[in-house]
Amino acid sequence: MTTGSGLVGLEDIREAAEGLGGVAVRTPLLPVPALAELAGVPVFLKLENRQPTGAFKLRGAWTALRHLPDAERRRGVITYSSGNHGQAVAFAAFRLGIHAVIVMPETAPAAKVKGVRKWGGDVVFAGRTSDDRRQKAEELIARDGLAVVPPFDHPLVIAGQGTVGLEIVEDLPEVTDVLVPVGGGGLLAGIATALAHLAPGAVATGVEPEGAAVLAASLAAGHRVRVDATASVADGLLPLQIGKLPWEHVHDRVRSAVVSDRAIMTAARWLRDHAGVLAEPSGAVTTAALQSGAVRPGGPTVLVVSGGNVDPDALGPA
Q1: 218 is catalytic
Q2: What is the C-alpha separation between 58 and 51, in angstroms, rounded?
Q3: Tens digits of residue pLDDT in 83-111
Q4: Ranges for all domains in the chain classified under CATH 3.40.50.1100
Q5: N or C terminus of the chain with fewer C-beta within 10 Å?
Q6: How many other CB atoms are found less than 10 A from the CB of residue 200?
Q7: Under CATH, what is the fold of the domain 57-148?
Q8: Of 57, 81, 82, 232, which is the active-site residue?
């Protein structure tokens, strides 16, 4: 499914896009005049919070499950997720008639746990870190023979997430900057790959919280950096390390930007109150990067709103 180099290619992303028909929404680009005035360039929001599961993760999860052999489908699937990927796998498994087990952190937001269970996923809680979840999933895989659908470190998942970039370029060919939330790096890897083929002059910038700046550290070091702990209000962006396969896609293609939790919450409330967009903190980091000046784009810019699975009241007052 990948190119001879082992990396996801444009044809893989196009194949994923065809397979998403009738499942994922082709999300719109919403122009935001107030942000355009601030940045001095046209600014658009890519509204992945409008997916059926509330986040972009559906694209990669569906693509991976769609390619599973029948024998693996019969055994069932498992993933480990802070929430949005888990909801996406549960949704895709429900649509395909596959049993799904989702390993989530003990601190998972109630809205995301509810979202998994809504689609029939069995929730197993394990610790607080991405390592805790992965290790528990590995135990269950060994015991029950379940097929694993990783949250970001998988070529089919990256190809599915890359359809976000495909749509951006098709809808805004003149795009020069795309700001992308980054945790494990699957979305950034997919978008950067699409841009490299279709808009090579455009720049993908991975945005992450100060308390989980693993991409920034890795780009500075020239290799993947693993940290001992991460912490942020952006609960979907807390892996201890960029994924191995995503890193191979992004290390020479992207820039990074880091934002504070205060800037993230300010951006989430601004999107809710002034743009009519409900974005969870992880989905608001790109707006935070623009508003805080962490990124200064050079032309038409897209801010990926990666998810909206949050109670509006949880964001606090305006």
Answers
A1: no
A2: 7
A3: 899 999 999 999 999 999 999 999 888 88
A4: 10-55+154-315, 57-148
A5: C
A6: 8
A7: Rossmann fold (3.40.50)
A8: 57
